[in-house]
Design a protein that fits this description.
The structure is a single chain. By secondary structure, the protein is α+β, with helices and mostly antiparallel strands. It has one domain: LCP protein (Aminopeptidase), CATH 3.40.630.190. Helices cover 44% and strands 21% of the residues. The strands form six sheets. Strands 1-2-11 form a three-stranded mixed sheet.
């Protein structure tokens, strides 16, 4: 996911890049964007995203499974609204329609599952965004972001299982959390890169991005017009409820 927080500080944007997106990887053949991380870790993934977007990334953070669970549990769990019954026959996971208070273990199952979703990886990205929104709402409603002691506890729990670039310190994370607190969950817009089709490359099922619409999206971001563009092109993801 690409997080964009304009200097104005009035809004923030989270754009999901499907992990199966078939893109050029610097120094390698075209492949799934997740392969960039597998072959070269965060550095190569960052280079790949910068090449795709023509945008310089300020920082990168990689959160592992244990860190994700810990962050959720430090908040005392997170409430997610599910619009319809969900059943994944491959592993027996299921959620009924309605509100669910999830601890870290259940939350991890929820954001990882994709085989029961009609849109596969793309729908999973929307589900992950919905969980981020729910986490932001919980942190805001309970005053975590405004309480320096609780905020430090939350960030330290995350940082124990999070890899970041060399320029990121606790002060950097604290400053970002405070900026997002000023924005508020209601002014965080979620979107996904436009997809043209799914395809097969050898044995791999891949996502073909809509190159023209993706270029227009990042042109709008660079020009400071991302919010208007997402609204006009109906690219915003409704993450208040997920299926």
């Amino acid at each position: 996911m690409l997080l964009h927080v304009p200097e104005s500080g009035r809004n923030a944007y989270v754009i999901s890049i499907p992990r199966d997106s078939y893109v050029p990887i610097p120094g390698h053949d075209d492949d799934k964007i997740s392969t960039a991380f597998a072959k070269g870790g965060p550095r190569l993934l960052m280079q790949t995203v910068e090449q795709l977007t023509d945008i310089r990334l300020d920082h990168v953070a990689v959160l592992d499974f244990s860190g994700f669970k810990r962050m959720t549990d430090v908040l005392g769990g997170v409430r997610v609204r599910v619009s319809e019954d969900i059943v994944d026959p491959s592993n027996g996971w299921s959620w009924s329609a309605g509100e669910h208070d999830m601890d870290g273990e259940e939350a991890l199952r929820f954001v990882r599952e994709r085989k029961g979703l009609p849109g596969g990886d793309v729908d999973r990205g929307r589900r992950q965004q919905a969980f981020i929104r729910a986490m932001a709402e919980k942190a805001t409603s309970e005053g975590v972001l405004e309480d320096p002691v609780r905020l430090d506890g939350f960030l330290r729990s995350a940082s124990e299982s999070m890899a970041v670039d060399d320029d990121v310190s606790m002060g950097t994370l604290r400053g970002l959390a405070q900026r997002l607190s000023e924005v508020g969950p209601e002014r965080i817009t979620f979107a996904s890169l436009p997809v043209a089709a799914t395809d097969w490359v050898g044995p791999q099922n891949v996502v073909r991005l809509d190159e023209n619409r993706v270029e227009e999206l990042f042109d709008a971001l660079r020009g400071g017009e991302l919010g208007d563009h997402l609204s006009e092109q109906e690219l915003e993801n409704d993450v208040d409820e997920v299926n």
